[in-house]
Design brief:
The structure is a homodimer. The first copy, chain A, is α+β, with helices and mostly antiparallel strands and about 300 residues long. Chain A is built from 7 helices and 16 strands. Helix content of chain A is about 15%, strand content about 25%. The longest helix of chain A is centred in the N-terminal third of the chain and has 12 residues.
Chain lengths: ~300, ~300
């Protein structure tokens, strides 16, 4: 029965977890939401003002033959790394380089396998930006305990951990987060070699490597790549590598060619309602609400901007 | 520089996390391990007696054109579901069916898309086996707090949560765990439609669906499948589905054709040393040890049995 496929295991659970499906949400802002809300209801009840468009100055496009990966950068957490990745993109550093590593349940990584690519205006290495001061940081905390940090939540819609005693904050390694590879020297990174998390959150990397952004669209283009058979998932043969057509700063791409996305702002009632709907699922399928939410089990809602217009 | 590829970002971190690399470990049981150990040292110092072979009576092979996926079943937690999946395999129920769903950062699912496959000796549905009594259960606890449960640890080397107050225990949805799909009725599952976790642990599913085993080899054959473009990641066109050649109980497969694996027993000193090595990484690359370990960030070491012989 094809019908069975429309309500299979855990069907209701993530019906709204895919950006494509968010984009398909009907506008329902005028309807008073019933309590308790499902994730679908929380998003359907959101107002256009609760969504913010991606800033093209802080967005880069990783262009592969299979399509475009949209990466939102996090200048508040890694200002120098973000500026350097943009400088590298603007001088065409990544164009023609390759994805060189795909390790199952861990990371996909790209860069210059030969280390011969010249760098003109950008820096090859930078001082580490593992963490920053927590003070003056916008922060929407999650209420539930975290295994690794005293507090977790969202800042600029990025997953963040905070240590109030130390007064420090840092981005955490959730699925889709993008970081800058380094060697044993903490200051040996800089953004010439980037990786993205494709598996269960490797939180032990937090504060050990500079995270600088996250994939907001096109993850499946990276997560489905054949895994490398060499140590650490590196591709053993050059022909196994996946060519990078280009990396561009969205602001440098003609508007007509940009991918217009918007993110549900973490400081909004609809974001709070969405978090609560994920902590306790009220879809009919569920029998035992978790009553908890792991920071990395909270993908921030992203949708095509067209949906926003439609919702007006 | 190719050399750079041998120590890239987070290289040291998971040098030992892949079964293939475990199998390649040199025997070092006779060397007194230094403290503190790295993961590599903890495994290298293990003795052959600390490893247990997979029980072919509780192991099934999912055979795809791309290769074999080895699934260890968990009869202690889902006895009736395990027996039913084996009965379904023995009557050839899965042979010629397909993988019908691949949702990014969530699950891959297989079964009968048409619901027409007859069942002869097995059951189509079974009463839920979401949890069990914690009493008399072998349990190796992890010391760190868990977001979702009062206690977590390992039982038969499966990731488990325990609620001492309720006296209940249940398998948890870590990467690679295998469960039985159901509709809204909790007793509508049974094993005819199975799913495997391919992303960040969807722990909100714990105690809502029957988990019955885990993939111990061949995850990359499932995690790299093209994602479905239909709702919930279902393949929209029949030709997109991935054919299943067969599902066999290992005990029914000639010994020469079996995949001989062994698992590091959770009740051993080397398992404890490995856990500690993951809680606080001592590889040179690390600067800030996490001091914590998430239950789903602790893949149980698995290796080819050949390595055991070599280690003797």
């Amino acid at each position: 029965m094809i019908a069975k496929l429309t309500r299979p295991v855990i069907a209701a659970v993530i019906a709204l977890s895919a950006p494509a499906l968010h984009a398909a949400l009907p506008a329902a802002a005028e309807q008073p939401p019933k309590k308790p809300l499902t994730m679908a209801e929380a998003l359907a009840a959101s107002t256009p003002a609760e969504w913010r468009p991606l800033d093209p100055r802080n967005t880069v496009y990783l262009e592969l033959a299979a399509g475009r990966v949209v990466i939102e950068l996090a200048p508040r957490f890694a200002p120098h790394y973000v500026a350097n990745v943009e400088a590298l993109a603007r001088e065409g550093y990544f164009d023609g380089l390759s994805i060189i590593r795909a390790q199952d349940n861990y990371v996909v990584q790209w860069g210059d396998p030969d280390g011969k690519r010249p760098i003109r205006t950008a820096q090859r290495t930078l001082a580490a930006e593992f963490e920053r001061a927590a003070r003056s940081l916008p922060f929407t905390p999650l209420p539930d305990p975290d295994t690794y940090a005293p507090e977790v939540g969202f800042s600029d819609e990025f997953p963040v951990a905070v240590d109030p005693k130390l007064g420090r904050a840092w981005l955490v390694h959730c699925y889709g987060m993008v970081g800058a590879g380094r060697d044993n020297d903490v200051d040996s990174g800089g953004g010439t070699e980037l990786y993205v998390v494709i598996g269960h959150a490797p939180r032990h990397l937090d504060r050990n490597v500079t995270l600088l952004g996250r994939v907001v669209q096109g993850m499946e283009l990276l997560s489905t790549l054949p895994r490398g058979t060499g140590p650490l998932g590196f591709y053993e043969q050059p022909e196994q590598r996946v060519p990078i057509k280009s990396v561009r700063v969205a602001a440098d791409v003609p508007e007509a060619q940009r991918t217009e996305l918007e993110v549900l702002r973490a400081d909004t009632p609809s974001f709070a309602a969405y978090v609560e709907a994920r902590r306790n699922r009220h879809e009919e399928w569920f029998k035992v609400p978790a009553g908890r939410l792991d920071i990395c089990n909270m993908p921030v809602p992203v949708r095509a901007r067209a949906a926003a217009s439609a919702a007006k």
